[in-house]
Amino acid sequence: MGKAPGFPGLCRILVVDDDPDLRSMLCRLLENDGYQVESADCGTAAWEHLRTQPCDLVVTDHHMAGLSGLGLLRRLHAARWNLPVIMVSGDPPDQELRSQPWLKLRALFRKPFDSSALREAVRGALEPAPLRTTPHSTGFSAG
Predict the structure, then answer these.
(1) How many angstroms separate the CA atoms of 88 and 66, rounded?
(2) What domains are there in the chain, each with its CATH number?
(3) Global confidence as pTM
């Protein structure tokens, strides 16, 4: 999907949470910022969704029946999908994340969370990496 800073409507976000009220609130929050938002009620449904529908970011809970947020993160890593993930959890898997440093989260929020901080983390996760130019990257020679 297209990641265009300043054009959030081009970015698709998948919100994963087994709590329907929180899932709905997260979806509304992100839709109000102009993102295209879809949702899943568990990690397994999220995995199936991601296999068929492209997305630019996942915002997930951790503790869910079946496939947890950490389990979803492991699957994404094993599939070598370079998809940014933000986790929002009342009891985040701090120990597991420390013992498996290759499982990278873009951000981790404890419930209850500051919605403006979450919105900023989402914007940061969707911004493309800045282009790095070197004197040799232009293809022109100095001589």
Answers:
(1) 17
(2) 8-126 (3.40.50.2300)
(3) 0.82
pLDDT in tens, 45-102: 999 999 999 899 999 999 999 999 999 999 999 999 889 999 999 888 788 887 887 7
As given in the structure block, the two tokens for residue 54 are: 């492209």
Question: What letter would DSSP give residue 41?
Answer: S
What's the length of the chain?
143
How many angstroms separate the Cα of 133 from the Cα of each of 4, 32, 82, 130, 136?
20, 35, 23, 9, 8
Judge whether 101 and 122 are in contact, CB under 8 Å.
no
Helix pair 43-52, 69-78: axis angle to 10 deg:
30
